[in-house]
What we know:
The complex is a heterodimer. Chain A is mainly beta. Chain A is 4% helix and 37% strand. The longest helix of chain A is centred in the middle third of the chain and has 7 residues, at 82-88. Chain B is of the alpha+beta class. Helices cover 33% and strands 26% of the residues of chain B. Chain B is built from two helices and three strands; from the N terminus they run E-E-E-H-H. Chain B has a three-stranded antiparallel beta sheet, with no helix packed on it. Chain B starts with 10 loop residues before the first strand and ends in a 6-residue tail after the last helix. The mean pLDDT of chain B is 90. The chains are: A mainly beta, B alpha+beta. At the A-B interface, strand 6, helix 1, strand 7 and strand 8 of A face helix 1 and helix 2 of B.
Amino acid sequence: MARRTEIIEAETRLGKRQIDLDKVIVFPRGLMGFEDQHEFTLLKIRDDAPFLILQSMQDPGLGLLVGDPYTFLPEYCIKVGDAEQTLLKVTDADELAVLVTVSIPPGHPENTSLNLTGPILINHEARIGVQIPQADVNPPRVLLRLAPGAPGEEDGKEAQDGTGEKEDSGEETRQ
Amino acid sequence: MLILTRKAGESLYVGDDIRITVLSMQGKQVKLGITLPKDMVVYREEVYRRVMEENRMALETNNEDLLVAAQLWHGVQK
Lengths: 175, 78
């Protein structure tokens, strides 16, 4: 794919930003609930923050808070099906980056949580992204806990919704 | 909604290349076999809906909270 090297100024959720068109990520299937949005880019909120905004290139108001789950949960495991691997045009696992959406209850940023059910995989070489729902092996959300003096320690997590869903779930076989 | 009745072992086609087979029924559960093109994906509805809901929540965070959260967890390293 020919790469664009232009930098444009665009309206985003965080106001006007310079966006390098080379860094635009194509989501062939969009995001769940936003299937008509196919181009996104990642915006920094501030330099050393573990959170980013996944900003739609089509809709300035559409920017989802996302973060690198491995900063907080090194053991987070995800399953990528064949169809999704094909969509991502992935040839090597090193090409992939993983993001999860992050939610903050209004007025309670201390209760920020990671949403582990729908990780977003990005092939950063091909600049393709796909959101891949996981059959509930993970707790759906993990609350980030602030450890005094050392925010976001590895064990600073806590299942917020412990339903866990036992029934059937994992049983999914391909023949 | 189209409603069809099938017995265990019977199938139906959705279009030409999607085949859904009722494999077995046990109590309240029905086991389905689904054959579909390689580039198509199947999700359980509840998982799909949860992800949609989470996406919506990630969108609705207000900018003030977002800046505070970024501040609270700034400098966190792997």
